[in-house]
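Contributing new complexes? Match this layout with calcium ion.
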Amino acid sequence: MDKDLISNDGANLDFAQLLAALSATATTRRRLLQAGLGSAALSFFGLPAMAAPTGRPGIGFTAISISSDDIVRVPDGYSVQLLYAWGDPISDGPAFRADAGNSASEQAEQAGMHHDGMHFFPWVEDGKPSSTHGLLCINHEYTDDGLLHPDGMADWSHEKTRKSQNAHGVSVIEVELKESGSEFRWQLVRPSRYARRISARTPTRIAGPAAGAPGMRTGDDRRGNVVFGTLANCAMGHTPWGTYLSCEENFDGYFNGLVEPTADQKRYGIRANGAGFRWHEYDRRFDVASEPNEANRFGWVVEIDPWKPAQAPVKRTALGRFKHECATLTLASDGRVVVYMSDDQAFEYLYKFVSSDRFDAGDPASGGRLLDVGTLYVARFDADGKGRWIALQHGQNGLDVGNGFADQAEILIRTRQAADLLGATKMDRPEWLAVDPQSGEVYCTLTNNRKRLTADAANPRAENAFGHIIRWREEQADAAAGAFDWDVFVLCGDPENPDPAKRGNIKGDAFASPDGLWFDRAGRLWIQTDVSGSVANRGDYQRLGNNQMLVADVASGEIRRFLTGPKACEITGISATPDARSLFINVQHPGEAAGGRSSPSAPLAGSGWPAKQFAGVTGGRPRSATLVIRRADGGVVGT
Ligand code: FEO
Ligand code: CA
Ligand code: CA
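Output block (do not edit by hand):
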């Protein structure tokens, strides 16, 4: 094959041409299918049979009002289907029990709790990606153990620990659009050979420079290269070689039993009682006093190949260790892989990784290794609208033994401490990143930061209660560049707030705490919100309603409300079929209780969703869920 097709075309890579060339022989077709490359590449860069859209697409639906009701609403002419709620069997396994009475082993074959980031991988047949059949990878970020067990956290036990661990991680499910009576509905394929639950107990390989390092070794794993599971899986990314990236965010909360944290533990938030999980009582890995290095084995980006159900997930340590929100891939002009990443905590940083080698579409199986060798950078935003990427590379920029970093593995395990030395810009809680398919500009949600006392250029509001979206353009439009220009795309808020600092500058519908962020293939920017249930629908947030999803036209700046969620939920996770006619989103933690744990004696106190909205759905508990949104006339969503 002609490798120039890939390496010279960079961010504007035309996979229509690539697929046409690659699909010329039956052998290559088989290879594409086996590797899932076709599906990944196509969903990555667009459809094969259509030219990349030119011009901005516009927004074609009528905006909806805010809502404080316990229901999902979408514009007229659209339908919402419930696809996959917590406790639903991934394949032909056990059904959900309304009293949360499923066992730990049953939970291991069911949807986890608290759905978050997600990606649809289309089936590929004859070089064409399907829009009616594929695999969905879905993160399950954390659990509300008050809802997970019939009696909540009372009489904590080995069984409850296992069930909680099994409700974390990732689902891979096979889904298909089928004719059902007079309509089409998405459904899970049951049984499916691809259906899989990855949990906080699944053997996972550790790869890259930190694998085997002294700080990664534990009593269970003296070689420091295998860890049981993944957790706190927030948002995600996907690769042009057909794999899913799941990001470990608030891993610190699972570690407990500490007496006096070290400075390094404090820098990552490891604290005496964690976030109140009690896993450490029955799984010594989470007892920091017994196993101090186990926490070093979380906080990574985890690669999962959904097409290979027997393959272990892989933690890619070259991408650094922090509270990873998401990992958004693009290609540099010369074909190197670039991963944009965010550390979601107040005053943390933005990062990017640039691989040393180029992506070779003719050898997709080698794709994962690109994530093991390269350079990690952290961002500095200067007041003049310029910015720099500063390398976190051993021996450079003072990152050496004299400053406490013996080698690159230590820089990666203690990424935050290394970035602290480099003058990186402290951001207002960076969440998702999205690359504009037309301009290559990168957008990032900065969800809020009330703790900020002093504004700076990139975080221009002190006590930033509503959040903003920043964007940057890499020098010479090359994602691997060392410098960029940036500006603020929008300051969120309520245009009717009497305090000018709280009004923001939204052109269109009001919202706050932007979190999920995604460009559809035509170039519309979809924004999902996560206002804390503790403040939503009150005070300054009164006129913003429940959490919601909006669409922005980045050329005009107009933002229009597309969806409102049920009570005390977060809207997060978004992906579409290649034809853009089915949109998948997640509703996380409907009815979330203050502090994140519900009372098992009143499980429905905060919300009765989704049973309240959808006929035939088992209730008893509010349940996080994946939804499919379609236009009644089968048209492209958002137009
Ligand atoms: Fe899991 Fe930063 O949201
Ligand atoms: Ca988030
Ligand atoms: Ca958030």
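Reviewers usually confirm one structural detail per submission. For this one: The first strand starts at residue 78 and ends at 85.
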